[in-house]
Structure to design on (279 residues):
């Protein structure tokens, strides 16, 4: 009996050792699987489309001719007298109405009031898709000479976005220009190159929110190019006759040899309705 107990104890110890070894092996495989999953997680990251345009990009492309569109009303169809006659002929018996009801014509046709969009100076800009939420400060330009030509060299705000104070105010026709650093003094526009057409830009002024939708985003070279190219680059921030905002920053993240340009139009123009909610 004593020998049997010893044999059982040895068997139990061997089984415990097997279970311990198998548990360590399972734990090893689990840790290896977690490590492999961590290494392969890059597939879920957002794909960024960076478009560097040629040095001969023309700001006056067809979409930027800035000419108002006119729409001719569709022709209205007037029923011919023969159509009513045919209906009467096809009817076996036409009985007159016992009572006639006359609906008086309205004295006037009310027209809906247009949505009044206030005009304001940008105070805050929010771009949810790239995590931007920063104040907007006024910035000015200083004259600088390149060759025989003089240009306005715009300042850039520190730890905030900068509103070019000679550009259009929010809510009025024109080009509202906002710039920001990409790798110094707050780097508020460091991810501007990640913005894609169709994404939302929100700008606030006096408690009112102006919603814009990105129409175009591209990159142009600024350094080491002829003066004509720099003039073309600068034409994107000039005055326009349509309402838009233009966001400008440098690129790549570790330098400033290129310019990122983002053009966004009011959501009321793109979607056919106004947006006036604020928070």
């Amino acid at each position: 009996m004593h020998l049997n107990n010893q044999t059982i104890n040895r068997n139990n110890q061997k089984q415990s050792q097997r279970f311990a070894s198998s548990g360590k092996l399972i734990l090893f495989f689990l840790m290896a699987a977690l490590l492999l999953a961590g290494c392969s997680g890059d597939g879920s990251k957002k794909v960024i489309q960076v478009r560097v345009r040629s040095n001969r990009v023309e700001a006056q492309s067809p979409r930027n001719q800035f000419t108002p569109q006119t729409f001719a009303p569709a022709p209205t169809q007037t029923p011919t007298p023969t159509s009513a006659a045919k209906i009467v002929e096809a009817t076996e018996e036409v009985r007159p109405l016992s009572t006639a009801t006359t609906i008086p014509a309205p004295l006037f046709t009310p027209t809906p009031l247009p949505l009044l969009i206030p005009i304001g100076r940008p105070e805050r800009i929010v771009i949810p898709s790239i995590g931007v939420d920063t104040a907007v400060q006024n910035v000015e330009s200083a004259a600088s000479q390149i060759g025989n030509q003089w240009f306005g060299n715009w300042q850039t705000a520190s730890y905030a976005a900068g509103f070019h104070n000679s550009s259009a105010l929010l809510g009025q026709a024109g080009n509202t220009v906002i710039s920001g650093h990409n790798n110094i003094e707050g780097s508020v526009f460091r991810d501007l190159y990640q913005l894609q057409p169709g994404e939302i830009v929100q700008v606030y002024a006096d408690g009112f929110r102006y919603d814009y939708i990105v129409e175009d985003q591209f990159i142009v070279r600024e350094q080491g190019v002829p003066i004509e190219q720099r003039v073309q680059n600068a034409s994107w921030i000039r005055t326009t006759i349509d309402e838009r905002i233009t966001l400008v920053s440098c690129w790549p993240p570790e330098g400033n040899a290129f310019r990122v340009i983002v053009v966004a139009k009011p959501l009321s123009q793109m979607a056919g309705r106004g947006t006036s909610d604020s928070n």
